[in-house]
Amino acid sequence: xxxxxxxxxxxxxxxxxxxxxxxxxxxxxxxxxxxxxxxxxxxxxxxxxxxxxxxxxxxxxxxxxxxxxxxxxxxxxxxxxxxxxxxxxxxxxxxxxxxxxxxxxxxxxxxxxxxxxxxxxxxxxxxxxxxxxxxxxxxxxxxxxxxxxxxxxxxxxxxxxxxxxxxxxxxxxxxxxxxxxxxxxxxxxxxxxxxxxxxxxxxxxxxxxxxxxxxxxxxxxxxxxxxxxxxxxxxxxxxxxxxxxxxxxxxxxxxxxxxxxxxxxxxxxxxxxxxxxxxxxxxxxxxxxxxxxxxxxxxxxxxxxxxxxxxxxxxxxxxxxxxxxxxxxxxxxxxxxxxxxxxxxxxxxxxxx
Length: 353
Ligand code: ZN
What we know:
By secondary structure, this protein is an alpha/beta fold.
């Protein structure tokens, strides 16, 4: 089974790829393996050796060379049973060129598995997570905040603060990823080998979904490899085989049963998702309030600046009062947010008990 595993940064690709290796015996081919192969190729005294040397000297590997190296790696004898490709392709042109080359070699990609995660969920995971430097306790600013901001509940240690602009960086990174990945997904969708796997639940849930996707792809592969044998048989033999076809039907029935299971599971997942969504909404509301407050403050500042130019200094005093009032309001709001967070934490604690 030749698999490409894709997913946005923070979706847990690496962990899932290790699990695939463990269960299905498919080695992971990442960019390290590709770099190794490139340097090996550079040692050759031929055209591809020259291309590799040029690429290394220039510090930049063109699509052409990259695909050449990948083709060599992926067609290796020790990967005849398959692999999990990670971190490639980076765009649709690479995807199409490589898949086409592998098709010609008779070993195309069987399945492209894309871990599909709600962007809000991803942001919550990546931006919200903070760890205690001293004891390693994990918190999430959105769903599991510490009782006191910046202080660990368990050991009283300091919690690392995110650097300035961290949230924006992650958000930009995700946006760039989405723009780059969509054409790749479109291409593999058109090729009929794309499977989106729900990654919004726990790590275990994601792993179950990935296994289902792989198992289904394996079953489909076996069926399609068995199919071409049938038409070659003569009429009489066909009649005789009719009885034999029953196992095929059973297979279909089994497949149906599996899909039913999947549906039930999906329904369960949806329920869980709804619960989560509700929890998220509360968190979001709090976040929105903060953002709104920030925006308001910013807008107020701009207006104030403009106003200051026109208005005489005499009016400065009442304005200060307004500012103070506004500050009080924000403080009250912040307090409210904190209270909600505390309530939530308390709820969680009691739930744990
Ligand atoms: Zn701690």
